[in-house]
Amino acid sequence: MTFWYQLVDLLPFEWAEPGKMLFMKNALLAIIVLAPIFGILGTMIVNNQMAFFSDALGHGAFTGVVIGGLAGFMLPVWSAVAFSIVFSVCISVVKQRTKMASDTIIGVFSSIAVAAGIFIATLGGKSFTKLNSFLVGSILSITPSEIGLLGLILLFVLVFWLFFFNKLLFSSVNSSLARSRGLKTFPLDMIFSMVIAVLVTVAMSWIGLLVINSFLVLPAASARNISSNQRQYHRRAIAISLFSGVAGLISSYYFETAAGATIVIISSIIFLITLALRKRHA
Amino acid sequence: MKNKDNTCEHSCCGLCCTRIENLGVTIGQNEILKDVNLHVHCGEFTAIIGPNGAGKSTLLKAILGEVRHTGSLRFMSSEGVRKDKPLIGYVPQHLDLDATSPTSVLDLYTVCRSAMPAWLHIPSRIRKKAAEYFSVAKAEHLLDRRLGALSGGELQRVLLSLALDPVPELLLLDEPVSGIDQNGMELFYELLSDLKRSYDLSIILVSHDMETVSRHADRLVLLSKTILASGSPQEVFRSESFKRVFSPFSGFQPGKNLE
């Protein structure tokens, strides 16, 4: 961390002065680690048209946090991770079994999760306000050890992507074709949903439930407008994610706004720009 | 049947074949296929025709193992080895792909045939191999095109190249209902005939264009829930079942177009 602080001290911002506002510097590092994860995973979420699904996972994670808090576990985050994984598996299995339209199933599960979360949180006349921080998120509260956790997640996602990306993309292009070549697409999709579930749950308290899905989907959706192969798509998604993350965090300091929302506003602007740039060539 | 005899003059003479026996598919309350018996030899191009909703695509999916079916599917290789599951090459009707997807033909090749992560880097040796590979179906110039920007015929050729590696024992094709021009269609069928000869492949194609397919297929199978007629295109077109299924609805007159 000391090295990072020294590095940030070189930046020409008032909060970057040596020894001041460590929380801001922590947040900056966290965003730099978090943004590529969002950029990378977002590409496949958009490919698979799972934007609504990942949104529902956030709702599931919220319920998990509430249940975890109620049961008095040491860290509500871990119970939330467990709950989200179960939640994502449930959605996948029900979808597979019933062959119902996925937006219906996701909508139902999402509603159950949110309703159950609020129900449990307010049971016995308790106030909901203490949970507001999960809705809006606060990246400024992140601690160096939590950044370490994010680093591990980034490492894990990179390794996962090295070995599983080809299979995921093949299955996304045409699952019958992929299965005819011996790929087990259902467990594969399940693993991918679990990875998203873990990420959304862990990152929710910093980015905020209300906007986390946008942070996941927007960079990839923007990159998609201006890319014609997977390498461009990934590089641009990561670049857009990093840029909006860093720019969003720094502007949130000056506007005195919540960082998550500011990041999403910047990525939305980038999306609109790429929409205008989009050339449907090659 | 005349056709079987013709096939026997080729190299594999009945040794290598796919045998579908009493195949039936029921989804929910609907019986989609029943008592389908089909025997396909190597080096034989069988086209399945039939009215809409006859279960043509379902038959392909049953052979692929995508839908549950009753009855049996057996394959015998030219070495006389029996297998329950032949090596199948599959060319889907279309890709359920968002037309805006940033996936190039080279990306598809890489994810299908290589362990090199397609998002990170594609080395030039893979590129070279891909070009070689797609040249079989005259699609080598399409490497950097997006899948969503290909025409129906181009996409079909790309998918055919993929289905041919590794060389399958049985090639299944679901022909697109629309989107391929007449020239592209002829080119594609000529390609299939070449492949059939050079690889000694069994080909089963679900066709929506009876006129073109009748000029290229060795055998037509008329399917409507079960097999109503099977044989050379002329035989099938002259059959009572064919007249019953098609004549009242379509102006297509096979006799005129064929002779």
Give the overall form of chain A.
Answer: globular
Query: In whole angstroms, how far apart are the ends of chain A?
Result: 46 Å
Separation of termini of chain B? 21 Å
Strand content of chain B: 15-25%
Major sheet summary line of chain A: none
Please, how many helices of chain B?
A: 10
Strands of chain B, count: 10
Q: Mean pLDDT of chain B, as a whole number? A: 83
Major sheet strand order of chain B? 6-7-8-3-9-10
Contiguous runs where pLDDT drops below 50 for at least 5 residues of chain A: none
The average pLDDT score of chain A comes to 90
Biggest chain contact: A-B, 33 and 39 residues
What's the order of the H and E elements of chain A? HHHHHHHHHHHH
Tell me the quaternary state. Answer: heterodimer
Summing up helix and strand content along with how strands pair, one would put the structural category of chain A as: mainly alpha
Helix content of chain A: over 70%
CA-atom Rg of chain B in angstroms: 19 Å
Textual characterization of the structure:
The complex is a heterodimer of chains A (282) and B (259). Chain A has 282 residues and is an all-alpha fold. Chain A has helices at 2-8, 22-47, 51-71, 76-98, 102-122, 132-136, 144-173, 175-180, 185-207, 209-225, 230-255, 259-277. The radius of gyration of chain A is 19 Å and the shape is globular. Chain B has helices spanning 2-8, 56-64, 105-113, 124-134, 152-163, 182-199, 210-216, 233-238, 240-246, 254-258, and strands at 17-27, 30-41, 45-49, 70-76, 82-83, 88-91, 170-174, 202-206, 219-224, 226-231. In chain B, the strands form 2 sheets. A 6-stranded mixed sheet of chain B has the order 6-7-8-3-9-10, with helices on both faces. Chain B has a 4-stranded antiparallel sheet with strand order 2-1-4-5, covered by helices on one side. The chains are: A mainly alpha (282), B alpha/beta (259). At the A-B interface, helix 2, helix 7, helix 8, helix 10 and helix 11 of A face strand 6 and helix 3 of B.
